Predict the 3D structure of the following.
Amino acid sequence: MLIYKIFRAHEWASLQAAGETTGAPIDVADGYIHFSTAETVAETAAKYFAGVEGLILLAIEADDLDPLKWEPAREDVLFPHLYRNLKMTDVIWAKPLPLVAGHHQFPDLL
């Protein structure tokens, strides 16, 4: 199952350069890396990245991540949280998440 991480361009560049990351500032503050599912990623973008240009959407295979925990978040929906650094080798693909008419345009996720 693929899960998704939204990064700002500079966060993605840092991951590429270093080969791993502790995540975005919210991830560092919370002590784990936040991910979304195909069903929740658009809401995540709208809630936390409204109007932000230059975003990158990363796809990661959940079955390959350890320790990944599914924990309740918004409205008690389970979200995947990674309790280690995210590595470039974890990334299946990365695609731009363009902002068109005020909304992020997602690639086909399913």
Summary: The mean pLDDT is 95.
